[in-house]
Amino acid sequence: MERIKRIMCLGLAVSIVFSICCRQVKAEEIIEMNVETVEEIIDDYDKELAEIDEMYRNLEIDGIQSIE
Question: Which letter does DSSP use for residue 3 in this model?
Fold first, then answer.
C-alpha cells in the first residue's frame, strides 16, 4: 500500500512539473509572438512615416519651384 502511495505521488509530481513546463513554453511563445507583432507595427509605422516625409519633401520642392 505504501508503495502504491509513493507511485501515485511520483506520478502527480511528474504531472505537475510537466504542466508547469508546458505553460512556461506556451508563455514564451506568446511573448515571442507579441514581440514580433510589436516589431511589425513599428516597421509599418516607420514605413508610413517615411512616406509622409517623402510627401512633405515633395511639397517643399514644389513650393520652392513655384516661387521661382
Answer: H
Cα→Cα distances 55→41, 58, 64, Å: 21, 5, 14
Quickly count: other Cβ atoms within 10 Å of residue 60's Cβ.
Answer: 10
Burial class (CB in 10 A: 0-12, 13-18, 19+), 15: exposed
Cut 0.90: pTM above it: no
Condensed to tens digits (0 to 9), the pLDDT of residues 9-28 reads: 888 888 888 787 777 778 78
| Dist CA 34 CA 23 (whole Å) | 16
